[in-house]
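ARCHIVE CARD
CATEGORY: sequence design from structure
SOURCE FIELD: tokenized fold
FIELD CONTENT:
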């Protein structure tokens, strides 16, 4: 059991405007659009960032802007030289040292002191092992994805490779690091992460606009009951990325607007995965159930990037997205479950429905056609992006008004005005990183937690300056609205539009 650590009482909430000269220097040096900001905590410790990919570089300006730290308080440990020029420009310590299960503790432990924060933004490094390392040292911990060690996405059974399995390992740490231990927040970017706060706000919006009497929930049981009372059946994390590059993708290149390695891992190497609702009538022929935990999710015997579903966003309207596995598909389904005794009487179906930028779609088509062999060049497009936006939110379906999308619409030009080293997608993720970090520093004694446990009002307050327009729109769209059996037949259930078989593209 971790002992009480007095350091955390020294964290205090301040505004960077309290130090006007520092604020002016930082905003000018880092190219920010200055604006009125909510109050943020000043962090008295150091940041140790593991991984220096797109999300880490995108998050750096926000960390420097909001926590009152200087570059000397930030150290990066990464596997290669990529992005080193950014670290040198900003004056942060940059260490190239690939981490393994065998060496991570010996490399990182000397770089941490009690009260620091380990921000894990790496791939192929065990999140569980890094969290244990940080908590044993008396440090805060946060990541954006529960990552296995190298090889974890390509070895073992399909069930072993699911996010369900990885999440079970993470939440199992609660027994060793309960409330009162340093906070370890797992899986908090925008999705997974901030999207759970967006969902809570969407539920309150629907309740208000359908005249459902309610008190704002304060715990898991109350949130689940509110969703149940609303009649929600299905939740998509529905995203359409329209960002385009100056030059087209060439053969043997993989283009993406965020981590290519991350997308390949979840879209190509992991099976499609979804929270499985209690209203579902027909279990997928290629589906399988989990054998441990609460069983809130199932998986399919095919990769997410080869599994398409019908979905909807306000600008794009209806389209086909990839059913890519994500942690929030499991955690949201579990969090919003209603029980009578030990029996689950309500659970929504929850999954990601993702249409990445068109160059990434081409890249996915190519890699699947090569039997999952990676292209020679993996490129995150940043400066090459010339136009486009990312609309990312929750599509909440089955309630009195049909379907409601609520989320962020951010274009690349606004993203660049708000913070350097960003495109629209990366800044949305970085906003979730910022919200998670603020929660950890303001609430440093919560032990192991997940996104659904955060105060959604505070999380959205922190993130909104970087989310562009927050849009809420109702629609009468359903996955069978435009079904025309005279053209082609497909498996459908015309008596209930919210059945998973209606969403799936066969």
């Amino acid at each position: 059991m971790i002992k009480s650590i007095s350091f955390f009482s020294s964290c205090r909430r301040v505004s960077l405007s309290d130090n006007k000269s520092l604020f002016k220097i930082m905003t000018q040096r880092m190219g920010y659009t200055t604006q009125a900001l909510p109050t943020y905590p000043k962090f008295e410790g150091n940041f140790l960032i593991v991984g220096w990919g797109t999300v880490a570089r995108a998050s750096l300006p926000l960390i420097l802007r909001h926590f009152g730290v200087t570059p000397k308080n930030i150290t990066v440990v990464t596997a290669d030289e990529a992005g080193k020029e950014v670290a040198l420009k900003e004056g942060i310590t940059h260490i190239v040292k690939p981490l393994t299960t065998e060496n991570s503790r010996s490399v990182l432990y000397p770089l941490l002191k009690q009260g620091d924060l380990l921000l894990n933004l790496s791939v192929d490094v065990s999140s569980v092992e890094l969290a244990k390392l940080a908590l044993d040292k008396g440090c805060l911990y946060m990541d954006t994805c529960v990552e296995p060690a190298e090889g974890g996405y390509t070895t073992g059974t399909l069930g072993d490779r699911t996010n369900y399995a990885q999440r079970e390992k993470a939440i199992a740490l609660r027994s060793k690091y309960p409330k009162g231990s340093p906070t370890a927040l797992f899986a908090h970017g925008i999705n997974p992460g901030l999207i759970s706060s967006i969902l809570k706000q969407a539920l309150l919006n629907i309740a208000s606009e359908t005249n459902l009497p309610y008190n704002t929930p304060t715990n898991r049981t109350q949130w689940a009951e509110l969703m149940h009372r609303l009649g929600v059946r299905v939740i998509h994390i529905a995203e359409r990325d329209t960002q385009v590059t100056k030059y087209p993708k060439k053969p043997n290149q993989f283009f993406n607007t965020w981590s290519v390695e991350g997308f390949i891992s979840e879209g190509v190497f992991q099976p499609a995965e979804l929270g499985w609702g209690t209203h579902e009538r027909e279990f997928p022929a290629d589906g399988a159930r989990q054998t441990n935990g609460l069983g809130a999710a199932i998986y399919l015997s095919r990769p997410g990037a080869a599994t398409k579903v019908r979905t909807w966003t306000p600008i794009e309207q209806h389209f086909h997205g990839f059913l890519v596995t994500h942690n929030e598909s499991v955690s949201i389904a579990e969090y919003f479950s209603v029980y009578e005794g030990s029996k689950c009487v309500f659970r929504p179906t929850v999954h990601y429905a993702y249409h990445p930028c068109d160059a990434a779609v081409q890249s996915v088509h190519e890699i699947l056609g090569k039997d999952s062999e990676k292209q020679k060049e993996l490129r995150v497009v940043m400066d090459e992006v010339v136009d486009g936006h990312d609309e990312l939110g929750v599509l909440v379906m089955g309630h009195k008004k049909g379907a409601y999308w609520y989320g962020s619409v951010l274009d690349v030009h606004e993203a660049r005005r708000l913070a350097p080293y960003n495109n629209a997608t990366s800044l949305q993720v970085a906003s979730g990183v910022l919200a998670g970090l603020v929660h950890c520093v303001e609430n440093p004694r919560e032990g192991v937690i997940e996104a659904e446990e955060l105060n959604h009002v505070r999380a959205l307050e922190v993130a909104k300056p970087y989310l562009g327009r927050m849009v809420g729109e109702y629609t009468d769209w359903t996955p069978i609205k435009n079904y025309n059996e005279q053209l082609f037949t497909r498996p459908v259930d015309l008596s209930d539009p919210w059945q998973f078989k209606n969403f799936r593209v066969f």
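CARD ANNOTATION: Residues 260 and 378 are 6 Å apart (CA to CA). Confidence is low (pLDDT under 50) at residues 1-34.
SHELF: design records, drawer C
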